Amino acid sequence: MCGIAGEIAFRRHAADQGPVARMVEVMDVRGPDGEGSWTNGWVALGHRRLTVIDLSDAGAQPMHDPHLGLTIVFNGCIYNYPQLRAELGGEFTFSSTSDTEVILKAYARWGEDFVDHLVGMFAVAIVDERRSCVVLARDRLGIKPLYVAELPGRLRFASTLPALVAGGGIDTTIDEVALHHYLSWHSIVPAPRTILRGVRKVPPATVSVIHSDGSRYDRVFWKPDYVRTAATERWTAEEWQDAIHAALRTAVQRRLVSDVPVGVLLSGGVDSSLIVALLAELGQQPVSTFSIGFDSAGGEQGDEFQYSDLVASTYGTDHHRIRIDSNEIVPAVGDTISAMTEPMGTQDVTGFYLLSKTVSEHIKVVQSGQGAAEVFAGYAYHQPAGSASRASALETFRGAFLDRTHDRMSDVVEPEWLCPTDVSRELLETHLDAPGAETALDAVLRLDTHLLLVDDPVKRVDSMTMAWGLEARVPFLDQDVVELAAHCPPELKATQGGKGILKDVARKVLPSSIIDRPKGYFPVPPLKYLGEPLLSEVSDALHAPEAKQRGLFRPDYVEELLAAPNANFSPGGNNLLWQLGVLEMWLQRHRIPA
Hints:
Blueprint: E1 2-9, H1 17-26, E2 34-39, E3 43-49, E4 63-65, E5 70-78, H2 81-88, H3 99-110, E6 120-128, E7 133-138, E8 147-151, E9 154-158, H4 161-167, H5 176-184, E10 200-201, E11 206-211, E12 216-220, H6 237-254, E13 262-265, H7 270-281, E14 288-294, H8 305-315, E15 318-324, H9 326-339, H10 349-359, E16 365-367, H11 372-375, H12 383-387, H13 393-401, H14 406-412, H15 423-432, H16 440-452, H17 454-466, E17 471-473, H18 479-487, H19 490-494, H20 500-507, H21 512-515, H22 525-528, H23 534-543, H24 545-550, H25 555-563, H26 576-589
Parallel strand pairs: 13-14, 13-16, 14-15, 16-17
Antiparallel strand pairs: 1-3, 1-9, 2-3, 4-5, 5-6, 6-7, 7-11, 8-9, 8-10, 11-12
């Protein structure tokens, strides 16, 4: 786990190590345990290291194999690296016990198809000197980030967007299409776009090959269909439960591979509680577990300690309660925004930042329940799709998920930033209407899992944990779990208010009180119900000279929100003023010029 960066210079030009060094410097928190660099003239690589597998210097990066003519920088974890190492051992000699070297040898064996053999989360850059190319690859669900920027005669890449900005020379103009997405979907900007016109994201499940002459091509290497299959169409509900139970157990077991202890972020909900139960099935005791709670606000309970305590007691975990006082949140907002790889307007990001800070004081690696709701239809907005016709998937999803309509955008942004057509609807339509999804719910879950989830919650989890050198692993986004769930009949997922089949699996191992209760969602009071001093900070950011020069938002709309700061919420309960404020504060924090 770490931060990676690099520059590729085309047509025999020299790569500039200065920008790479600056990019690596701003990613120091992602890899506090070491730093490395390498160049062959036309490629320069940089790396920050968090030691999790092979703690020795033999696992350091960039890793160069002169015999193979290959050099790699890698961010993530390959869970099946021991099996791959055994498979490749007859052909190659290994000089480390790291998963990084296994990737290098896998590429030497299988070429660009090496990604098909990897089980894990990864952003990889491999310099192949014999082919005069660089191969970039991102894992199937986009768990690990990979940003790219094209400049005259060269291309740069990094684990964070601010790192690319720090390298200099980037077009930092706001991307008006990305802005439309941001304001439409809870601050989500799907790949390949980012909020900046000059920076793009390598999409999930993509291999990108860049040759030294500047030519390039991309290949999508994984795209499961959301259809029923001949192998499973006769399965009973009980057989589906057994299959998902087994797949999840394997996913949790895979994510134990580590040379340091692995804990669990335990919210007290079904998802994280199930991870603890599965670890107990695997004989992993005691496990360190961590729960977070906030002050109650607006009639909403701020913690679920009664449930996390029950799970911890049932399975005998080494449990840590972390209570975040409201007074701690406001001072942490600025640092949280600095830690965001892109602006994130959901209210719980600061809470997750503070949780990660405390957890990192105890442990380096945790498993987390993120992704379960998207994969198993756990959100309220999934329910309408469960009974909708296939043809109405688009309108059903938009009606339940949209923050602002395209018609409303003319009241929100200044004319120069207004897209002439409803680009967000068009993108949704392209994905929802594509073949390979049988029902409306199949189409919505495919959209959620493979397009939207990557930027929320996956990006949020990676940004906030890595801000403290903490590695988060997400078993519900295991490739085999996702593929199995994609084939699962939608009616089994949509029952019981969502995640029906997951709840049935959980009933076999968890106390019923964990399962049969209303879904909890922590309020982060100062961010959902804006008051002083944070309200003034938001107001100052939106009235700052940079904001006025940038001219994104119509002044009358800004004043409307500021006049009633707690009266305008998205369907998901996010404060729309905070969404605007975060964007402008993020741009100012990272010194994005107006």
